[in-house]
Amino acid sequence: MTDGSGPARAEVFAYVGLEVGRDTLRGRYSLDGRPFEESVAFEGTGRLDRPDVVAVAELWYLLAGLSYYKAGAARRVDLAATPVGEEGRRLIQAALVDGLGEFAFAHGLSLTEVPLVGGSPAPRVAPALDPAGVLVPFGGGIDSVVTVEHLSHDLDRALFVVSPSTGRFAPLEAAAALTGLEVVRATRTLDPQLSSDPTLWRGHVPVTAMVTLLAAVAALATGRGGVAMSNEHSASAPNLVIGGRAVNHQWSKSLAAEELVAAALAERVGPALSVASVLRDRSEIWVAREFSRLERYLPVFRSCNRAFAQRPEDRAPGWCGECDKCLFVSLVLAPFVERAHLAALLGVEPLADPAREAQLRALVGLGATPKPFECVGDPAESAAALLEAASLPEWTGAEPLATVARECRPTHSLLELLEPQGGSRVPAHWLR
């Protein structure tokens, strides 16, 4: 039986064990007895097989398991003897229900009643970490670049880059090189069954939360007391609400996820490690303006998801100009980067492509469908950017920009969105 579209659901997903080596994590799982394994190899860290690092690696192991839980959407989760703790259990429960919310929605499933059985108390250690040492998970797009440049240069800043086993991403590496900062690396090897077996369930998982915890592992292993994420205020805004429950593609970038991760880490390593988003109180509009001023990054950055496919042969050599991410990044940069320059940088001009009109409508909240299941801003941000761009003489005659602008009624002005949005958990000494 299946609750929605797709293959039959599995009965039990089990955590089999975590192996922590000198520089490698290896998580083992079971889906109705079928084994799965994921490994992560680190470069530029100290030993991982220390009590403080292992305590945090166990949290990564819990969240990483969702990639394999999803393969069968099991009706029960057995944590076995895995150290979990009260805060860790809250985190994995929320990640299961909300982090897999888009997956569940796409397959017509409900995961709210899936029980988490087993688990043991979490270990508590007290590592000695440098509060001025901050690791920045870096993806090569506008968000993480702005975070790097807005952190205090008095800090011991370093980048944290996760690559697939199939090879590093060229545009990410080019942007990382421009920072001039040390790079701490992790290479993630997913179980090949996820991509090779068409009978397994597929869908979105809370990967940013997984990367956050890998960064926390690397921070402890290098003696750093901070992990600086790059998630904006609007990452907390859901794509839609079904039956009173929010479905948010960016749940693992949300404030709720940040607080859950921070609490689960504090349960294990106390206050020595700070994990917070530098951009939490900022809009996508503010980030785009700040990025537009960092001219040396403009020729090399990439935010088109097609450049970051797992298989090198599937990676687009430039901006595709067709996906929602290309469209959104073009939209938020248009008020701040001259049109001809933006077109030259991207090699495409989706805002002037009539085929993109329906996508633009969805971005600004005028479409028949909700905000795209992509890492894009909320409709208020998109609408403000669209109205501003459409008002510029250089964009006169560009369709579908002008068409959508005539119907768009933004709830916030561009100037309002350039002001701080809500609160932030960022330690004061991180900022300039």
| Tally of strands | 12
Our count of domains comes out at 2
Which stretches are poorly predicted, pLDDT < 50 over at least 5 residues? Answer: none
Structural class: alpha/beta
Question: Average pLDDT value?
Answer: 94
What is the end-to-end distance? 56 Å
Helix-strand pattern:
EEEHHEHHEEHEHEHHEEEHEHHHHHHH
Largest sheet: 10 strands, mixed
The oligomeric status of these chains comes to: single chain
Count the DSSP helices. Answer: 16
Silhouette: globular
Portion in strands: 15-25%
Nearest-angstrom radius of gyration? 21 Å
Helix content: 25-40%
Strand neighbour order, sheet with most strands: 5-4-1-2-3-8-7-6-9-12
Element layout with pairings:
Elements: E1 12-20, E2 24-31, E3 34-43, H1 51-64, H2 66-69, E4 76-78, H3 86-99, H4 101-107, E5 116-117, E6 130-137, H5 142-150, E7 156-164, H6 170-179, E8 182-189, H7 193-196, H8 207-222, E9 224-229, E10 240-242, E11 245-247, H9 255-269, E12 274-277, H10 284-292, H11 324-333, H12 339-346, H13 357-364, H14 379-390, H15 401-407, H16 414-417
Parallel strand pairs: 1-4, 4-5, 6-7, 6-9, 7-8, 9-12
Antiparallel strand pairs: 1-2, 2-3, 3-8, 10-11
